[in-house]
Write a structure and sequence with these properties.
Shape: globular
Strand content: under 5%
Largest sheet: none
Oligomer: single chain
Radius of gyration: 23 Å
Number of strands: 0
Length: 270
């Protein structure tokens, strides 16, 4: 009887958690298919005639394709640079117990992003890099690099050291071991780090709001096009938000298995 009660309690907790997580997304998705009148109606209308006018407005009246391309360029390059720097750093932390380096990288992640804005703004202004991909990519590396390092250092610790010792006995160098043995064995961890770093970069609003202007505006900034002092176009905001979330959602669903296993492995080792 006690077992049944615990099981019921567990399923109730799962349903409650799923509702809390999914309800805002479902509400946003449904609202994106409503007219402005139906969205603000009270009590909420659950039976309505779906319309795609909000999506037509997002892609027809706003330059969403350009924002999408900008977001893709910034996210892809910032994740690429983060992997290039983060993988050797994570390997070094895992194999040589460089806890101080790990702490410095963690501090960069723990500090509020707004504390980096003023230095970034001054540096990029003086260098004439405002409203360029370089400025956005470098600022987004600050977000993606700690994610890559912390996930991958935990993952590298799960790979037996004996494999490297055997290769060293056969005369392999540390670089050869890292490139030819460790990285090929770290596929799930790299996919996990890449997916999460991409999502964090994709959704970043703060750095893009300050460092980008007309040419390099990214998708999160585009939502502001539907807000004005006198009025809020809720249908446009909802449709734009769904459009922004879609790539990250698809990416997570495709690599769900790797993300869960990679995070779990890191958590166990940590």
């Amino acid at each position: 009887m006690k077992k049944v009660g615990l099981k019921v309690l567990f399923y109730c907790a799962v349903v409650m958690l799923a509702t809390i997580v999914l309800l805002p997304f479902l509400w946003m998705l449904i609202s994106s298919l409503k007219t402005q009148v139906d969205i603000v109606a009270w009590p909420p209308k659950f039976v309505f005639s779906p319309t795609f006018q909000n999506y037509y407005r997002v892609f027809g009246e706003q330059d969403f394709i350009r924002y999408f391309i900008n977001s893709t360029i910034v996210a892809v390059f910032s994740v690429g640079v983060s992997l290039l720097l983060g993988l050797p750093a994570a390997y070094s932390i895992a194999r040589f117990s460089q806890r101080r380096l790990a702490l410095v990288i963690l501090l960069a992640r723990l500090m509020p992003g707004i504390s980096f804005l003023m230095p970034w703004y001054i540096i990029f202004s003086r260098l004439g890099l405002m409203d360029t991909y370089v400025a956005l990519v470098l600022s987004h590396v600050l977000i993606a690099l700690p994610i890559v390092v912390w996930i991958m250092s935990s993952y590298f610790e799960t790979i037996p050291v004996e494999l490297e010792e055997s290769a060293m006995v056969d005369g392999a160098s540390r670089h050869y071991i890292f490139l030819r043995i460790i990285l090929p064995l770290s596929g799930p961890g790299i996919i996990t780090a890449t997916t999460l770093a991409f999502i964090f970069s994709w959704n970043n609003f703060l750095f893009s709001q300050v460092l980008s202007m007309e040419k390099t505006r990214t998708l999160p900034i585009a939502v502001f096009n539907f807000l004005s002092y006198a009025d809020i176009d809720w249908g446009g905001v909802m449709a734009a938000s769904v459009t922004i979330m879609a790539p990250a959602l698809v990416l997570t669903m495709i690599f769900q298995r790797y993300v869960v296993s990679g995070l779990t492995m890191g958590a166990v080792k940590g």
